[in-house]
Amino acid sequence: MTEFDYKSALAKVPELPGVYRYFDDEGTVIYVGKAKNLKNRVSSYFAKSNQHDRKTKRLVSQIRNLEFTIAHTEFDALLLENTLIKQFQPKFNILLRDDKMYPFICITNEAFPKIITIRRVDKKLGTFFGPFANQKAMYAILEMFNQLYSFRTCNLNLNEKNIQDRKFKVCLEYHIGNCKGPCEGLQTENDYIKEIDQAKNILKGNMSLPKQYFEERMLEAASKLAFEEAQEFKEKLTYLVNFQSKSTVVNPNIKDVDVFSIVSDENAFYFNFMKVLNGFITQTQSLEVKKKLDETDEDVLTMMVWEMREKYESEAKEVITNIPLSVDLKGVENTIPQIGDKKKLLDMSLKNVLYFKKEKADRQASEESAGDTKMRILLTLKNDLQLKAIPRHIECFDNSNIQGTNPVSAMVCFKNGLPSKKDYRHFTPKTVEGPNDFATMHEVVTRRYTRLLEEEADLPDLIIIDGGKGQLSASADALKNLGLYGKIPIIGIAKRLEEIYFPEDSIPLYIDKKSESLKLIQRLRDEAHRFGITKHRDKRSKNFIISQLESIDGIGKHTAEKLLKHFGTVSNIYKATTEELETLLGKAKALKLKEQLKVINDQ
Prior knowledge:
By secondary structure, this protein is of the alpha+beta class. It folds into 5 domains: 6-88, GIY-YIG endonuclease, CATH 3.40.1440; 104-206, no CATH class; 257-361, Nucleotidyltransferase, domain 5, CATH 3.30.420; 379-538, Nucleotidyltransferase, domain 5 (2-Layer Sandwich), CATH 3.30.420; 551-602, 5' to 3' exonuclease, C-terminal subdomain (DNA polymerase, domain 1), CATH 1.10.150.20. Helix content is 46%, strand content 19%. It is built from 20 helices and 19 strands. It has helices at residues 6-11, 38-46, 54-62, 74-88, 135-148, 160-164, 172-175, 189-203, 208-223, 227-246, 297-311, 340-369, 373-385, 437-454, 469-482, 516-550, 557-567, 570-575, 578-585, 587-602; strands at residues 18-23, 29-35, 65-70, 104-108, 115-118, 126-129, 257-264, 268-277, 280-290, 318-321, 333-335, 393-402, 405-415, 418-419, 425-427, 462-466, 490-494, 499-502, 505-509. Strands 12, 13, 14, 15, 16, 17, 18 and 19 form an 8-stranded mixed beta sheet that branches. Strands 9-8-7-10-11 form a 5-stranded mixed beta sheet, with helices on both faces. Strands 2-1-3 form a 3-stranded antiparallel beta sheet. Strand 8 and strand 9 form a beta hairpin. The termini are far apart. Belongs to the UvrC family. The UvrABC repair system catalyzes the recognition and processing of DNA lesions. UvrC both incises the 5' and 3' sides of the lesion. The N-terminal half is responsible for the 3' incision and the C-terminal half is responsible for the 5' incision. It is found in: Cytoplasm.
């Protein structure tokens, strides 16, 4: 396989905005990217390659050729990148595609147009509105049209000649009042088109013109003393107003705006899009996109904004986002509101995307748990404790001491319902003197999570404290000092009645004694106790052995610790040869120790 001479290729790359394409040994485009400075961006793939993640290293290993296209601006580069990704669908690019074919509402191009739902867009068929990710909302609009207007549902060819030749007869829809009989010429095409225009305005989010239309018809009928007709228009106007009041009204002063929010984890990006027209939300969609390389949230959000605005044919001049876009979109203002109604809109979008992300994780966990007992138990624990996320990573703390001597604290870690013994930790209190469980718990929790924060390591999904309200309160205070309180759920378990306590809540939770989730909590508590007691006994035994060795003439505490560290046990020290002792202590002290050990052994 021919190696890629990237140095020669880089020499030709300019320091200008544009789009670059990587090819594999078969000449297939495997990645398309944009850059403000092509040379800097392309160079970054080949310089300091040891700092790349696994996926990027895999991409670089497959590059055999490079092409680039210069663009006038970064915005032009964005458009070209978007086009090329759609054209080549490179395997290392994320594709902002939704596998679902969402339905559209179509107003057909024909005499006396029909309003239909369809999933495939064919502009020759008619004018399309959508797509509708929320089908419930789409059917609510169609139902409103049925209440307000009398659109035909038949497939007859209602051209002028066919109607004049009286080729058709009215059907049941006419007799029950759902159609005004255009097939027999009982409704003119001009009157029919006026109603179609009202429907188009509603679909565009403009309710004011349909409301004005019904008001005028109502007043016109009333002036002619046609009170039944006036009442009919009044009822339709009331129906339209009621429908609008049920829509998510934002603020009449906020005209047309698109709202986007993005969150991500190690595996995927999650988006929410809301389209606001004339003061109320007309479209909303959430979707997930799997990560491919080390894409930034800003770059992916920018691609997503362009893609969704194109998909929903948005002409809004303002885009609200939770993070800034990586490229300025021509003619579009990007804002990140901090207060006011626009901030409420953004908060609503963020709430939707976080719920969508949680729902995805729960669904995946539920699918995994179908044949996985451990995952089922974790889901039960999540529900019993009303946690926001599945507690895949749990840490439990316990204090061990006997009458204040040789105090030690233990932390055990369970991942995916199983002990992760490499993550177990012991703590010897450094700032606490005497038997003080509350202060000790505060210290060890502080030390544990200060260390994780400094190392930027993963934090647990749940912390369990072996103890009642006092130990739990001390631990919660430690988390508050670290800025982690409220970010990591923490509970305490009291031994007597197996009560579960939450911070700042005096009423405990009693989980069913037979519950699998309580048994998991108990297992964590018992494991922390066992791990702590084992260390406590080892520590107490070590102190006793050191005390024994110190009783030998000429052996101080330092020498005793040195001997124990080297030989492990007193028995091994007894068995050691004079030469082994000499190596550690020197000849004089070794001979003296050997003699005294022989005397003790002979007694």
